[in-house]
Design brief:
The chain is mostly helical. It has one domain. 77% of the residues lie in helices and 1% in strands. The chain has 19 helices and two strands. A two-stranded antiparallel ribbon has the order 1-2.
């Protein structure tokens, strides 16, 4: 396929699928369409990644759409999350009696519509268009939070919209200031929003204007990414959204916001003489997010809120890695993949256990391994993986970030990272052991798992174990090329 048409197809396919879902007669047909559409997206993303890997970045004739190593890597992570979450959604809603055909059609349209919005974020050459994609994804996913209308879910949706809209407004101001830093005759007004053109003239951008713009950007997109202290919407949204929606939130949408920040890093670094000015902001927000999440995880009582604070921690780890640069950026991108796989698995298991027990209150989730052997065991092992236990891949990416900090002599971030991770390890492991092995007050009949549940639990765990022991050479090359893009190379 023509590479330009391939990029356009990445945008059109999920949008067309969203429209199709509105016309389908039954929930079964809607979920079949979702899976077919996401599978098609996976094939297109793989083709785009292969083209970029062998022939370099692709830009459309009108310059608005563009893919390089960083965007194609994130496209692959995104489609993996949506594949897993779409399959999990079909299983999750089978266990509910509240999904009418009308509700299923709305869910399918919003689900694929948000996928289309996130695609726009990843394939935009215009930083303005990237902002539009993030805003569209925010608005569409807000209605997924309250797909089941209750007072609590509506309140969480309102909080999500209010806080994230303020954040997106800050990001808009940062985008305008970035464009203003490319004052005439450096670039024309039409070119001042194009990332590739900004990168070409980055050393000559107005550094002071760009610095102010980056502060707005990291606060704005950092709000959407769930970085502390702008994270307050995240626990409420996760606790009220259906588990597959929470999986998409944690598995990729938060990472997509960090992707937006990464796009501006090489511009600011080049304009400020590679002084590390913007990287210090990322280190600061990363460390604060790890410590704040540690304080909240220890005292959590709701399983999904605990997983939400875990996402705050892991977004902090990714931000810290990018802030350290070099190996740290490589490890941060690797951590993005590991966290996406593991958190999608954790929310699937949490959602199924919530249906079995009728609650996400961890004090009432007892004996999960006996009551629901597949999902109970899956949740326990996903907790161990999220906590950085060897041999899972998160252990390797966290170890690489610590090595990057030690190599850079960043001993304060190194020490605070270990402190926060240690607190989280003890606090979350206590919850995990209690849920898995504590004797329930009222033993229930063991839940019989279907083969889809086994597949959705076993495959991610095996993948995390394999990636923790061995990294394919192709993945290593993709990660280094994506990391080099963040460092300023358009490859």
């Amino acid at each position: 396929m023509n590479p330009e048409l391939l990029i356009v197809a990445l945008l059109v396919l999920p949008a067309a699928g969203a429209g199709l879902c509105l016309l389908l007669p039954s929930p079964r047909a809607v979920f079949a369409a979702i899976l077919a559409c996401v599978a098609g997206m996976a094939a297109l993303s793989a083709a785009a990644a292969a083209h970029v890997h062998t022939r370099g970045p692709v830009r459309t004739a009108w310059d608005w759409l563009f893919v390089d190593s960083l965007s194609t890597y994130n496209l692959l992570v995104m489609t993996l999350v949506f594949l897993m979450s779409s399959a999990a959604a079909r299983q999750y809603f089978r266990g509910e009696d509240r999904l009418s055909p009308h509700l299923a059609r709305r869910f399918g349209a919003l689900w694929l519509g948000s996928l289309s919005g996130m695609n726009l974020v990843l394939i935009s050459n215009s930083v303005g268009l990237m902002w539009v994609g993030m805003e569209a994804a925010t608005l569409l996913t807000a209605f997924l939070v309250c797909i089941h209308r209750t007072q609590a879910s509506l309140e969480a949706t309102w909080k999500y919209l209010l806080i994230c809209s303020v954040g997106i407004a800050f990001a808009f101001m940062g985008t305008l200031l970035t464009a203003a830093s490319a004052h005439a005759p450096l670039l024309t007004p039409a070119e001042s929003l194009l990332w590739t053109r900004l990168l070409e003239v980055a050393p000559r951008l107005d550094a002071d204007t760009l610095k102010v713009g980056f502060v707005f950007l990291i606060v704005g997109y950092g709000t959407k990414a769930g970085l502390a202290p702008m994270h307050s919407w995240l626990p409420d949204a996760h606790s009220q959204a259906p588990a597959p929606v929470s999986a998409v939130f944690s598995g990729f949408m938060l990472s997509a916001s960090l992707y937006c920040i990464m796009r501006f890093v090489p511009l600011v670094e080049a304009a400020t003489g590679n002084s590390g000015w913007c990287l210090r902001f990322l280190v600061l927000f990363g460390v604060v997010s790890i410590l704040v999440s540690a304080a909240f995880i220890v005292f959590q009582k709701d399983l999904k809120r605990l997983l939400a604070y875990s996402s705050v921690e892991h977004m902090g780890i990714i931000a810290l890695g990018v802030g350290l640069g070099g190996l740290g950026t490589f490890a941060a991108l690797f951590h993005t993949l590991n966290h996406s796989i593991c958190k999608t698995l954790a929310f699937f298991c949490a959602g199924r256990l919530g249906q079995i027990y009728g609650t996400h209150d961890m004090s009432r989730l007892a004996g999960t391994v006996k009551r629901a052997p597949v999902c109970g065991s899956g949740l326990f092992w996903s907790f161990l993986a999220l906590l950085g236990m060897a041999p899972f891949a998160i252990f390797m990416s966290e170890l690489q970030i610590l090595k990057a900090a030690a190599d850079a002599g960043a001993w304060w971030p190194f020490s605070l990272f270990l402190l926060g991770a240690g607190i989280i390890f003890v606090g979350a492991l206590r919850h995990a052991i209690s849920m898995a092995w504590r004797e329930p007050g009222e033993p229930g009949k063991p839940e019989e798992a279907v083969w889809e549940d086994v597949f959705l639990v076993v495959v991610p765990l095996v993948a995390l174990a394999v990636l923790g022991l061995w990294m394919p050479e192709l993945l290593k090359q993709m990660l280094w090329r994506a990391a080099n893009t963040v460092a300023g190379s358009a490859r």
